[in-house]
Amino acid sequence: MMHKVAIVMGSKSDWETLGIASELLTEFDVGWHAEVVSAHRTPEKLFSFARNARANGLEVIIAGAGGAAHLPGMVAALTPLPVLGVPIQSKALSGMDSLLSIVQMPKGVAVGTLAIGTAGAFNAALLAVQVLALNDQVLAAKLDIWRDRQTQTVLADSHIGGN
Ligand code: RP5
């Protein structure tokens, strides 16, 4: 399958969080490719990955990192593709460090920052599907069904109690 979405992460340990994004993309039959690309430990790889991303047929990039999380911002600086940043829940500061270093981009270079941890990873994939669905009617129809099913599931199980 052609990989339209890249999931890049600062460390293999981030896959525990970002794996959920790949599962949702697979559910929607969206091709994805996951790879460790560390802004600090493999900076040259970061440059070549981001610079070639569009030419390699990618359309959306999900970038997750923890701590001093420079990966999403650096990727966004090097490619015009939309970059969705996922702050990984770090041990020392519970992901506040990751969140603030991803969300506070300077004006002129955009990263779409999601929630800390697995909710953010899941929603990054959902947002990637929504972006791709703009130019893909089959995907758009699947997304409508998925959203409707979620709504129906919540409604069907919405009664809490009473006397
Ligand atoms: C960041 O440091 C990674 O994104 C990861 O969240 C964090 C810890 O990395 P490891 O020490 O587990 O490799 O680069």
From TrEMBL:
Any one GO molecular-function label of the UniProt entry: 5-(carboxyamino)imidazole ribonucleotide mutase activity
- Can you tell me which residues bind substrate? 11, 14, 41
Q: Which domain of life is it from?
A: Bacteria
Per the UniProt record, which EC number(s) apply here?
A: 5.4.99.18
Q: Where is the PurE domain?
A: 3-154
Biochemical pathway: Purine metabolism; IMP biosynthesis via de novo pathway; 5-amino-1-(5-phospho-D-ribosyl)imidazole-4-carboxylate from 5-amino-1-(5-phospho-D-ribosyl)imidazole (N5-CAIR route): step 2/2
Reaction(s) catalyzed by this protein?
Answer: 5-carboxyamino-1-(5-phospho-D-ribosyl)imidazole + H(+) = 5-amino-1-(5-phospho-D-ribosyl)imidazole-4-carboxylate
Q: Which GO terms describe its biological process?
A: 'de novo' IMP biosynthetic process
Which of UniProt's keywords are assigned here? Isomerase, Lyase, Purine biosynthesis
Q: Write out the function statement from the record.
A: Catalyzes the conversion of N5-carboxyaminoimidazole ribonucleotide (N5-CAIR) to 4-carboxy-5-aminoimidazole ribonucleotide (CAIR).
The record's family statement is: Belongs to the AIR carboxylase family. Class I subfamily.
Q: PANTHER family under this entry?
A: PHOSPHORIBOSYLAMINOIMIDAZOLE CARBOXYLASE, PHOSPHORIBOSYLAMINOIMIDAZOLE CARBOXYLASE CATALYTIC SUBUNIT
Name of protein: N5-carboxyaminoimidazole ribonucleotide mutase
